[in-house]
Amino acid sequence: MHKVLVIHGPNLNRLGQRDPLQYGAGTLKELERSLLELAVELGVTLETFQSNHEGKLIDIIQTTDAHGIVINPGALTHYSYSLRDAVADYPGPVVEAHLSNIHAREPFRQQSVIAGAAKGQISGLGFNSYLLALRAVVALLAEEL
Questions:
Q1: Cα separations (Å) of 2 from 20, 89, 92, 138?
Q2: Catalytic residue numbers?
Q3: Smallest Cα–Cα separation from 68: which of 5, 145, 122?
Q4: What is the pLDDT of residues 91-120, one digit of tens each?
Q5: Domain count, the chain
């Protein structure tokens, strides 16, 4: 059975409290519940991890035994070359997910340094961005068989 790691970057622990127009009203716990339900449906195991610290995100990518990753790097999306390098070095498929449409936001948020190292990016669909990213990682893993 495949294992997928979902990584939530800085400030995503505040979902449900921060700017609901951009990020929706749902909490991180509610998002993770939806992801776990979908993982069961897709026949994969799921691990989730959230940190506000760049180094901890890099450490989990470098040490995980998961076969694929869904990542929302939060604000690190736009400038963390060290996180980008960790994603590039990871041997399995990685799909970047964003609740808001980063390409329709402030100019500094429109560029992702992570995107070039990931298999794909899904943004602007709220919780569905994560759910679609999980489906994409599972599909990519199935192609490897």
A1: 33, 19, 11, 8
A2: 23, 98
A3: 5
A4: 999 999 999 998 877 776 768 999 999 999
A5: 1
